[in-house]
Amino acid sequence: MSTNEFYSLKVNGVDHHVSDAWIGESLLYVLRERLGLPGSKGACEQGECGSCTVFIDGAAVCSCLVMAASAVESEIATVEGLNADGTLTDVQEAFVTEGAVQCGFCTPGLVMAVHHLLDENDSPSELEVKEALSGNICRCTGYGRIFAAVDKVVAVRRGALS
Amino acid sequence: MSSVKTKRDVLGTSSLRPDGGAKVKGDFAFTSDLHAENMLWGATLRSPHPHARIVSIDTTAAWKIAGVECIVTADDVPGQLTYGLISSDQPVFAKDVVRYMGEPIAAVAADHPETCRRALAAITVVYEVLPVLFDPELAIGDDFEPIHPDGNLIRQQRIVHGDTSVVGDVIVEGHYVIGMQDQAFLGTESALALPDADGQGVEVFVATQWLHEDQKQMAACLNLPTERVRLVLGGVGGAFGAREDISLQVHTALLALRTSRPVKMQYGREESFFGHVHRHPATVWMRHHATNEGKIVKIEARFVFDGGAYASTSAAVLINGVTHTQGPYKCPVAVVDGYAVRTNNPPCGAMRGFGVVQACFAHEGQMDKLAAAVGTDPVSIRLMNAMETGDLLITGQPVESVAPVARLIRETNEIPLPPDLAIDANELDLPGGSGITAERKHIRRGIGWGVSIKNIMYSEGFDDYSTARCTLSDGKVVLKFATSEVGQGFVTLAPQIARSVLGVTDAVCDTIDTQIGSAGSTSASRQTWMSGGAVDGACRLVRERLFELVGAQQNIEPIRFAIEDDEIVDTAGTFRMSVIEASQGITISETFEHHHRKTEELDENGQGNCHVAFAFVAHRAVVDVDPELGLVKVVQIATAQDVGQVLNPLSVLGQIEGGIAQGLGLAVMEEIIVQEGRVRNPSFTDYLLPTALDAPVVVARMIEEYEPQAPLGAKGVGEPPCISVTPAIVAAIRDAIGKDIDRCPVRPQDICL
């Protein structure tokens, strides 16, 4: 059932060896249970809720839908990689100050989704924000404070530029 | 708060969550993130049938699978074989009969989740399928053989109030149907059990709403002394009522005790749909009698709540439903019959709104019918009948709470309506969104209203007290309580209370566990009032002790002291000393239990002061509807909510917006589909939840009227937002298409067929 072969995953710039893994394990499972990176959350196992959002080669994906072994050649980025220097990113900071966090289970996935959105589009319209975040379900906030956090980051980044 | 000089996060400020930083970084440890050395995984075998006799269970093949360490069934339960919040009627494992699809039959512990899955598949259970009781009406009489030794009727309650011979000039009647909603918290059920070395006890990290109630029920089933079942709150990913009942707690602890190894259990999403209770589906009939002007003179009603296979909190949900029949309106006469019944459908219990959601959907539908019948509008009919402090409920209980119902309606009505849908509106903004299914010319806009009353705290004589300890040392405060933090923000509020009462800046929360008295459940919008009261009381006791100490040192009567910002001041002299200085080198620790006032049980006519207090809210919904495809977009929700004193504006707004989204879900998309006892959509692909695209613009006003009964003047704010928004949205759909819709959620076929 298990294999003695191992493979390597490059996560947040660091190579991790994965040994004795079952071939069917999802990237989410391997990150959480084998590599000690539990920041990505599992809440639906079918790509509906976005709690497990990570970047693979820059694309935001649901890690529950990716077989870990298929990501060997890729650059994987998880929420844990956002704080290499120990400080919060502007998106994380805005989530805290704008009240976008309640239970927090959806939060790491949403933080990743917002980073991805704003990296691609520095001044999204209201509809673009909603479209971009519609793959991330939050059951606590009703999304209002999450939109406020996005607006805050956009405004601050714009201010920093001008 | 104007006298505050320093920027301390006292009451009234939008103090930020102390766990916010950890949560945005992914560092916060949810229960499902926990690990232990040498840990096994647990999993549960569940019934595929809604009703069947268990002929045999054969675990032989499963035991042979490498990595399987333990298999337990009903025969292995060392203590009480059943559990339950109100009556102990639910088996830890089904033994002779299964009564709902998904009922646990066995549990396994193994080295990997996949080994668990294979082990479950290798257990052979032979069933003899039995007739399914799926129609709640059949459960009321003697038409169907009892499916449980306790019978098919869980509880019946009648309310008879006033001169029932009264007949109104105008009579309106309606039948309403409320679907089964799921709490759908994001963090599924999870627990990690660590057995004591002597095998005579267990420590369990669990995501729950009420540690002490879990502890009590677990100890009984495990046949252990209560103190040998120690519970610690693991990080909780939302709750909304679904964590009030036992799910995997006993199973996980039992596997850990049998294997002498740590065991972790965690449900997947599909299993979660079977692993917790849901909101009761209900049918409600109401007949309102009124004067020609529209004043209510009598309400007749009949409620049937489908409790599913086990009692859970159905008895209390029923009482909440029937006692809120009138809504936030004056009503002198009522005849109400309510039934909570047992069926082979999924068990139902607590969900945000707890029985009042169902009552509100019906009474608000009735108010609109009444407005139409007497030729007035939805706002006028509600203002005309609005309840006030001092009014009697149909239970004979006076409403002693602040009851600003008319003000809520007026303030909501003052909120500007959204702009009309532009002729050239972006097609993505139309109902159907990015499906691009709608044409602008077909879209119709509607406006609807919903107003509600909700009891807060537990009812019917139950003393749901809360306990807290405050320890002050060197200017720092540590707060200890067993209050479940499920996302609502009590860990934010508690330090705010300490800062306000004691003048400190540094206030933190200790581990939340059973090493202190009960806090009661994080439900019924009660923790700000109850645990807030307990923290406030403990902090005040510490303050008294501090004043005594400083008074003795300074030869000043302690009664002359007050806290002003971060200092102790002599109100009759010039002495001042910072709290930090005054508490250097000393430790003062005090524990306080907060009890609410006593309530009563209802008599056979449903009369009695059964509730503690009430909160009110008004909602106005604006929707766009595509009548051809039956699609709805909720454009705006305007709301004014009776909150008492606002203790943390950001937290209150979060509750309002979050509750509205859940109420929107019940209005237009969320329903567990059950056919003859079988759940047809146990996944997030098929059970639809509101996404960012479904979120309406919310314009909220917090109506601050200090509640004298509440320890901090604040009412609970968690439940009201989700209650009347559902009927408001459905009323707006009716308004848009001119069709009588009597059910929620509203499905496309309800609109276009």
TrEMBL record, chain A:
InterPro entries: 2Fe-2S-bd (IPR002888), 2Fe-2S-bd_dom_sf (IPR036884), 2Fe-2S_ferredoxin-like_sf (IPR036010), 2Fe-2S_ferredoxin-type (IPR001041), 2Fe2S_fd_BS (IPR006058), Beta-grasp_dom_sf (IPR012675), Diverse_Oxidoreductases (IPR051452)
Keywords assigned: 2Fe-2S, Iron, Iron-sulfur, Metal-binding, Oxidoreductase
Residue span(s) of domain 2Fe-2S ferredoxin-type: 5-82
Gene Ontology molecular function: 2 iron, 2 sulfur cluster binding; metal ion binding; oxidoreductase activity
Gene3D superfamilies, per database record: 3.10.20.30, [2Fe-2S]-binding domain
Entry-linked Pfam families: Fer2 (PF00111), Fer2_2 (PF01799)
Protein name per UniProt: Unannotated protein
Species of the source: freshwater metagenome
From TrEMBL, chain B:
Protein's organism: freshwater metagenome
InterPro entries: Ald_Oxase/Xan_DH_a/b, Ald_Oxase/Xan_DH_a/b_sf, Ald_Oxase/xanthine_DH-like, AldOxase/xan_DH_MoCoBD1, AldOxase/xan_DH_MoCoBD2, AldOxase/xan_DH_Mopterin-bd_sf, Xanthine_dehydrogenase_dsu
GO molecular function, one term: iron ion binding
Position of the signal peptide: none
Aldehyde oxidase/xanthine dehydrogenase a/b hammerhead domain residues: 25-131
One Pfam family named in its UniProt record: Ald_Xan_dh_C
Protein known as: Unannotated protein
